[in-house]
Amino acid sequence: MEVSRRTVLAGMAAVPAASLLDTRSTAVADVPEVKLSWLEGKPTTAAVTTWGTPWPKGAVPADQTFALKAADGSAVPVQSWPTAYWPDGSLKWSAHAIAVDAPAESYTLGPGTAAAPPQPVTVKNEKTYVDVDTGVIKTRIRKSGPELISHIWRGDVLIARKGQLVNLKQDKIAEDEEGGSVRERYESDITRVTVEQSGPVRAVVRIEGRHKSKKGKTWLPFSVRLYFVAGAENVRMVHTFVYDRDGQQDYIAGLGVRFRVPMRDAAYDRHVRFVGEGHGMVSEAVKGITGLRRDPGATVRAAQIAGTKLPDPATWDQRVTTRLKWIPEWGDYTLSQLNADGFTVKKRTKQGYGWVSVDQGGRASGLGYVGGVSGGFAFGLRDFWQRHPTQLDIRGAFTEEAEVTVWLWSPDAGAMDTRFYHDGMGEDTYPEQLDALEITYEDYEPKFGTPYGIARTSELTFWALAATPTAARLGDLADQVRTPPQLINPVDQLISTRVFGGLVSPVDRSVPAKKAIEDHLDFLFDFYRGQVESRHWYGFWDYGDIMHTFDEDRLVWRYDVGGYAWDNSELSPDLWLWYSFLRSGRADIFRFAEAMTRHTGEVDVYHLGQWAGLGTRHGVQHWADSAKQQRISTAIYRRFYYYLTADERTGDLLSELVDSDQTFLVLDPLRKIRTEPYEPDPHALAIGLGTDWSGLAAAWLTEWERQGPKADVAHSKLLGTMETIGAMPNGFVTGGGLYDLDTGRFAPVTAKTVSVSHLSAMFGQVEICAEIIDLVDMPAFEAAWLQYCRLFNATREEQTAECGAYFGNLILRQGHSRLTAYAAVRLDRDDLAARAWKEFYTGDGYGPNLPWASEEVKSTLNPTQAAKWVSTNTTALYGLAAIQTLALVGDQIVNP
């Protein structure tokens, strides 16, 4: 049976959240089974995946063990761990990992004892190193020095060694400065190694450090996680670095991961491979014996093309055998992807000699290989062309040891230019900056447009192979680099468990009005996906974001006009995409949302410095705008990806935000528009009840349900702020309050105050309130939120009668129709349901009578499709209003 929410939460208020693990209820119903499927269909080769599964409240004990079965009923080894709990102590989210040689079409997850893998991954944590053995490969990880991975063996064969991070730092932008620029080499320097998981199916080792020069200078903090799975021949690396300069000096001129690869075979048995577009590839031998004036023999040539060991040279045509020394040995290869639509491959015999062009193409897969018939090393970088400029280098393949570098930022591309894009134009005072805001929509402030503290995460995979792989095998590896296999839950499981507050329902075209809305939602997603491609929204810092507003005169997005350029999560496209995935299970939506989460959580948010925990408002550069706010960094944008994939890096981002209430001591979000003196006081911090509080609440809720190290504090602050908001005479309509960092509560408010913004609920507040109202039985808080939901789109008379004043001329009414719908359901009021649909159809967003189509634009550099009416940037709000209103009051739909 389900434990009473009211009873449990009343008792929890007096229990530290950290102790909840010891007080969990075991009175649960039978644990249900869940059928899982592959996001993009069954992989064609061995697959590794980690995923999260949600569970209904009260259904699964906290200590539940799980078993996994393939479609034919056979047991599949699985490793499981909890990632979130319901307030009653039952399991809310569990995470699972598998590695399978022959993937099944589907799997069933349920209660039971997990099958043991035939070759479990094991971890030996020694004083100076960590050894991880998958049963196929063994890897040694150093705890200090420059080498993250000192050795990778396959059996007794050393496949790669001296794996380290490499960086080139440049002192100036060469084309803008007199004199030559200087590049200085930096390498990884390890400061900490942590074993986070140790098997039996999955092991995770986290490595932290900074990049260090030979002179002892350091910069660019990094965090690298290495993933190992039972029976696997590969190591997955998730690499994160934080940019710790102001962007006006010290430029990244190269950033990569480097290994040395022993070369044991004869030069004609050594091979280089690069997979380009699809499964097409550059397939070369270090010493080629095809195309020669003399023919060694068909069998010999076929073996070299296949990458297998050549017959004894004594069996060849001796006119070739006696002249092998005259055939050049090509030791150096480079594949450069300097833009989204073009890569080049070149080679040379060795350093100091000329490069020869090999080939070129459009979009490389990011996979390469070097080695021979006795073993070799494959290496891949995900989103290779999307994150340009990237590069794959092989050096010295004719020597006893080749060097492989996977460049996240290509040294051939020039230095990464992180300088602010204008000189301030005399905007020295707040009045001047506010006036400029009126024309360019950019909130400028000197020294605020800095990238100091932003980050970027990349995903790499390295294979220790027994021999040069076949073309088909390399093609399969390339596919998995491009699109890693991902198991997902059925839509019904994601929705019925209500883990995200019950604001989503499955796609429904059962009546014409619903069909029209669903068609419009599909159109908007397809349009933006198409815009990413046709407008080339790619690049190292840019991939994953979308633009804010279209310029109908130039027929381009306003990429160079202040706050109209990059979107930086403005009006919550992240939420629109994730809710769209939850209700549809569509792979294309998942991958779009995944790229956005990787971008917005890293690039648009500060991870170091005084603004750590805050994000940057939309602008020409992702870090340009001076508005540093919770509404961009909010945890609610990242929670979906974390819970669906159990991605540890995303978990780091969520943990970073728990103490972000401290940022209000160093930066006042309203500093430019205050009319009365204000100095931040730790016992009386001015915090808005909209975008500010919702961001804090999302972080606190996530830490609490994850049972993180600060769960007790997060729990206290969440409940404390909820209680004190509920006690305000006008609740959320009050607009803000004075917050005490020590108590985690707002100061009492006695007067009825009205301060309502059209943006307050548009950055996750609707979603976070729905979740916590489902979790916490606090009638006063729910009443305060329902009051806000009822009154935002209400008449002047209704607002004044209840709150004492008119809310003002508000906009984004269509986006707020979902608030009316929420109130209709919670209060069981048909009049509000009808009003919600009227607001949705007749609000100030997208109407049903729009031309829901795009047209070809021919006057741009690259003719493309455009729908100019989309550019008002209310797409996300329309999508959320449609999705959530359908979920809440879809059965009471009113036809347009």
Estimated radius of gyration: 29 Å
Give unreliable regions as ranges.
Answer: 1-28
Number of helices: 20
Mean pLDDT metric: 94
Strand residue content: 25-35%
Main beta-sheet annotation = 20 strands, antiparallel
Helix and strand composition category: alpha+beta
State the total count of DSSP E strands. 37
Q: Please state the overall shape, judged from the principal axes of the Cα atoms.
A: globular
User: Percent of residues in helical segments?
Assistant: 25-40%
Question: CA-to-CA gap between the ends?
Answer: 43 Å
Domain PcRGLX/YetA-like C-terminal alpha/alpha toroid: 484-892
Domain PcRGLX/YetA-like central beta-sandwich: 121-478
Protein name: Tat pathway signal sequence domain protein
Domain PcRGLX/YetA-like N-terminal RIFT barrel: 33-109
What would you note in describing this structure?
This protein is α+β, with helices and mostly antiparallel strands and 896 residues long. Among the domains are: 34-111, Immunoglobulin-like (Sandwich), CATH 2.60.40; 122-261, no CATH class. It is 25% helix and 27% strand. It is built from 20 helices and 37 strands. The strands form seven sheets. It has a 20-stranded antiparallel beta sheet that branches. Strands 4-3-7-1-28 form a five-stranded antiparallel beta sheet, with no helix packed on it. Residues 1-28 have low confidence and may be disordered. Residues 121-478 form the PcRGLX/YetA-like central beta-sandwich domain. Residues 33-109 form the PcRGLX/YetA-like N-terminal RIFT barrel domain. This is Tat pathway signal sequence domain protein. It comes from Kribbella pittospori.
